[in-house]
Write a structure and sequence with these properties.
Number of helices: 18
Bound molecules: arginine
Distance between the termini: 55 Å
Oligomer: single chain
Number of domains: 3
Order of helices and strands: HHEEEHEHEHEEEHEHEHEEHHHHHHHHHH
Strand order of the largest sheet: 4-1-5-12-6
CATH topology of the largest domain: MetI-like fold
CATH class of the largest domain: Mainly Alpha
Low-confidence stretches: 20-47
């Protein structure tokens, strides 16, 4: 036990040695990062360096972060099989981008990661039905408020007589979205109830319908929207939170004053014409109605098809690169050269010793901090290929080592060079021996590609979650996806078996 502490400190030291230059490099290459923890940049937070408005105009895009699970503020609808962001706040975002003369880019993420995204400049502003609160104001700036509202409970209609006020939830479970004001309200004022926090409101509604939670606390318009959309649900006023709270505004990174001022101008204009009440809310209601009519799971087949397409792309590209990496590292590990051997052992052990989910996030957020324009798909493929390479390397090594040395010796005595012996004698035999193990690895890879959904790549699992969110059906989309994965892996097994038989015959 005693030697653990020095070991741990050594680890921290190594880690900081690796990351210090990495961070410096990231800071140097990203023009927009104004908040770095290093002492040298402490002077950049003054108003004089506020180039937020200019920055947005220069890049020609306004990146808006939101959590599109909050009708009528923001939600998704499908149009020609594609996801479209609608709701009155998305209209506001559109208006803002139009006033700035730039293109609007919407980034849909979990509500509780929005402020982090803002602070790390992954988005220019957050428009997400976000209340102005003193806690949030410590970390971000807010525009003028453009909407106000209370908190309502969403419940199953069957429980209508059971729940009429917050107190009725004594000993029951109330669902809230992580990171919201509702989360804090329930935590603070409803100590008599259990609380269940989830990332997406759509997951909360599914949990409500399957009686995993007894009520969900939401902003009034959203509670009403869900109740109107679903005949099994109803809503009532929670009377939680003071009446003057609940003002919603756009959030900006601290110090982005010029961008905030531009937003205030847009908001003034919108309020003068009363656009939200007169035009955008009715429009949002229309979208909700039209989508209520045909949101059967089957009508989302294009989502599943898209998902399969991405899953196959990730799998095929990763298999190819994983195999190349695996061969390379197997040879390195078998090499006489101590350095090459050492590198290969480190790579294999490290990759096999850390979870793939963490690796995916690390590649996306870590390397993504240096190369900011790296798409999530590329990050996903890199992570999966690197991961697969480690396993394939071990499979290949075992295949090569399983062959008697006599094979190489015989080939060499026939006058082949080392390389030729490897390519024409060793590798073909090794490949035949390891084929089943390789096949296993490919099937694992196909299934594990589902983890890439966490960084927002539109593969099968990601699409499944979209369908769940849109249809409020928790189980059916999962079942369909399970079947699709099975068909894919089963087909892959058949193909692999075919080649295995052919190699046997050739032998
Ligand atoms: N108004 C609440 C808050 O500020 C909840 C907002 C949730 N928004 C959303 N898009 N899911 O915390």
């Amino acid at each position: 036990m005693k030697h653990l502490k020095p070991l741990f400190m050594l680890f921290i030291l190594c880690a900081s040695l690796i990351f210090a230059p990495l961070n410096a490099f990231a800071a140097a290459t990203s023009s927009s990062s104004s908040s770095s923890s290093s002492a040298t940049s402490s002077s950049t937070n003054t108003a004089a360096t506020d180039d937020s408005l200019q920055r947005v105009k220069q890049k020609g895009t306004l990146v808006v972060g939101t959590s599109a699970d909050y009708p009528p503020f923001e939600f998704t609808t499908k149009q020609n099989g594609k996801t479209k962001y609608v709701g009155f706040e998305m209209q506001l975002a559109r208006q803002f981008a139009k006033d700035l003369g730039v293109k609007l880019v919407i980034k849909n993420m979990d509500f509780d990661s929005l402020l982090v995204a803002l602070e790390t400049h992954k988005v220019d502003t957050v428009i997400a039905g976000m209340n102005v609160t003193p806690e949030r104001e410590k970390n971000v700036d807010f525009s003028k408020a453009y909407y106000k509202g209370n908190n309502f409970f969403l419940i199953n209609k069957a429980d209508k007589n059971k729940y009429k006020s917050a107190k009725n939830f004594t000993g029951k479970t109330v669902g809230v979205q992580n990171g919201t004001t509702q989360y804090n309200l329930v935590k603070q004022y409803m100590k008599y109830a259990h609380m269940r926090g989830l990332a997406k409101v759509s997951s909360l509604v599914i949990a409500l319908q399957s009686h995993k939670v007894d009520g969900v606390l939401l902003d009034e318009p959203t509670a009403r929207a869900y109740a109107n959309n679903n005949s099994n649900l109803t809503t009532f006023n929670s009377h939680l939170g003071s009446s003057n709270s609940g003002a919603k505004a756009m959030a900006f990174a601290k110090g982005d004053k010029s961008l905030e001022a531009a937003a205030n101008q847009t908001i003034d204009k919108v309020q003068k014409k009363d656009l939200i009440n007169k035009k955008w809310l009715p429009q949002a209601a229309k979208y909700m109605n039209s989508y209520k009519k045909h949101n059967t799971v089957a009508s989302y087949w294009t989502f599943f098809a898209k998902g399969v397409e991405y899953t196959l792309i990730i799998t095929i590209v990763s298999v190819i690169f994983g195999f190349l990496l695996g061969t390379l590292f197997a040879l390195m590990r078998l090499s006489q050269n101590k350095l090459l051997h050492g590198i290969a052992v480190c790579y294999i052990e490290f990759i096999r010793g850390t979870p793939m989910l963490v690796q995916i996030m690390f590649v996306y957020f870590g390397i993504g901090a240096i190369i900011q324009s790296m798409p999530a798909l590329v990050a996903g493929i890199i992570a999966v290929a690197i991961n697969s390479g480690a396993y394939v390397a071990e499979v290949i090594r075992s295949g090569i080592q399983s062959l008697p040395v006599g094979q190489t010796e015989a080939a060499r005595s026939l006058g082949m060079t080392k390389k030729q012996a490897f390519r024409f004698v060793i590798m073909p035999q090794a490949l035949r021996n390891i084929w089943p193990a390789l096949g296993n690895e490919f099937i694992t890879l196909l299934k594990d590609s589902s983890l890439v959904s966490t960084i927002g790549v539109g593969e099968l699992m990601y699409q499944t979650q979209l369908v769940q969110a849109d249809t409020y059906k928790g189980v059916l989309p999962l079942f369909i996806t399970m079947m699709i994965y099975f068909v894919l892996t089963f087909t892959l097994t058949r193909i692999l078996n075919y080649f295995e038989r052919r190699m046997k015959h050739a032998h």
